[in-house]
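I am writing to request your help with a piece of structural work I have in hand. A protein sequence and the structure tokens that stand for its backbone fold form the material at issue. Please examine both parts with care and let me know of anything in them that strikes you as inconsistent. The record follows directly beneath this note.
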Amino acid sequence: MSRLTAADQAIRNILKTKEKDALLEPLRRALDSESSAVFAVISKCKNDVTTSPCSTIFRGLFDATTKVVEAILQVTDGTKKEAVEALYKAFEKEQNKTEKLHQLATDVLNALEQH
């Protein structure tokens, strides 16, 4: 899966960044890659990510995507941080719904552009 490879590469690029101010753009790119990978897995698994190997792949994407959002919360401030926090809190209430992970990533990306 080339989308998984792209998501992994985006994470590796972030780990090379030394300054907090320079982290937001690589994190945004990583979240965009994770979002694409989530969409691809959901599509290939026909929305049933509870069967193996879909469940294993989706669980990894779930963990990676939520960690990227948490990292974004660490490097943002002001209205961007407030917007992302609100989205993440709403997601936490419904995170057992498959489609919500892709929606979280999309909404966070939109919030980063708007604020």
The mean pLDDT is 86. The chain has one domain: 2-114. DSSP finds five helices and no strands in the chain. The helical segments are 2-15, 24-44, 54-75, 78-93, 98-114.
